């Protein structure tokens, strides 16, 4: 299984699993439609091999720490962004040698407002 996680913030795409250096500027990514395959691809997006639910949760925590925050008129720290988590599962039927592949996409539109250590999610 492989996993990736991206953020759409201010009309730009960012890799949430990229550099562990939080002080490094984040690189904007592009989205491409792969010809003949009818699905999209984000060149440069980090994909991580995962073998257990615990590893998936670790990636989710890592991605959460990379989410964008910015000040708004209502609050000093806020995040209004969309995210896309993708888990790609591949396997082979041992009896027929048939290869199968599935993709789970989870999107979210989250507005986070940080107010006296309270998180409000809409």
Notable characteristics:
Kinesin, 7-stranded antiparallel beta sheet, 122 residues, mainly beta, single chain
Kindly report the CATH topology.
Answer: Kinesin
- Report the major sheet: 7 strands, antiparallel
What's the tally of helices?
Answer: 1
| Annotated CATH homologous superfamily | Kinesin motor domain
Distance between the termini: 30 Å
Poorly predicted regions are: 111-122
In CATH terms, what is the architecture? 3-Layer(aba) Sandwich
Structural domain tally: 1
What Rg do the Cα atoms give?
17 Å
Report the mean per-residue pLDDT as an integer. Answer: 79
Structural class: mainly beta
How many beta-strand segments?
9
Quaternary state reads single chain
| CATH class designation | Alpha Beta
In short:
With 122 residues, this protein is mainly β.
Description:
By secondary structure, this protein is mainly beta. It has one domain: Kinesin motor domain (Kinesin), CATH 3.40.850. 11% of the residues lie in helices and 48% in strands. It contains 1 helix and 9 strands. Strands 1, 2, 3, 6, 7, 8 and 9 form a 7-stranded antiparallel beta sheet that branches. It has a two-stranded antiparallel sheet with strand order 4-5. The longest helix is centred in the middle third of the chain and has 13 residues.
